[in-house]
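User: Sequence in, structure out. Go.
Assistant: Echoing your sequence, followed by the structure tokens.
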Amino acid sequence: MDSHLLRTLVTVARLGSFSAAALELGYTQSAVSQQIAALEAELGAPLLHRRPVGPTGAGERMVEHARLLLERMDAARADVRRLSVPDRPQLLLAVSPLAMDPAVARALAKVRQDDPRLRVRVRVLPRRAVAAEVAAGGCAVGVTDGYTAPGGPLALGDLGPVRQAGLGEEPCAVLCPAGHPLHRRTGVDLGQLADAGWLDAPAVAAPLADLRTATGGGAFPAVADYEGLDAAALLALAVAGHGLAVLPRALAASAGATALPVRAPRLAHRREVLFAPVLDAPARAFVDALPRGV
């Protein structure tokens, strides 16, 4: 039985949504649906109701077994990694698309300068996948980002013993193309834009679900979807008029279009470092080299 299928089942059952599970796991929604169908075919039983999404009786029992199996597999994987001492020291870092800022790059340069033998490996993953990778022991350190109230930690779910520390935050802005009806404004209230056309790019821009929560309402209809991790591609779509997007103010301003500061609700783009309670020397040196923020 494929562990990837089991992890997908557990994630869909926990979130109650195929699309939310796809975002967290870094898959497309169709890939998640195919994986669930493959697991149901292998077991010969329906595991999930589709509308609304939730486990069947057989699915609840399978989720219980899957959680135990995945916990044992993650523990075994982490155990073997701890016992494996490579000839050349390595630092594996998981980062989300907007988390690799100059401060992170400088911290990596410092640890490599201190130990020229060190091999650095950087993996770019969706925001929640970074947290899941660190929590599962796939890597000791991750740097992720997200959108939250100023001074508030990112909501990353249950990370177990993983530690979470802020690296800094910045204001947000709405990116819209030149000539858009909003382009002459000096700032915006997101609640007044709930009926505008939006780009749904949850791996880079502020997820539309978060904007609905922050404004206490609904709407924020998506007129275009972007499922990639490349910020430059998203900026190009927004500048070309495919929809509005909330982004870090500096990034939005770099696009060569109109970046309107978000005045309400209070919203910030935040970066955080996630790390295991016990770190090897390269990982500890990297974490210590990072400038801590709010």
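User: And one key feature?
Assistant: The radius of gyration is 21 Å.
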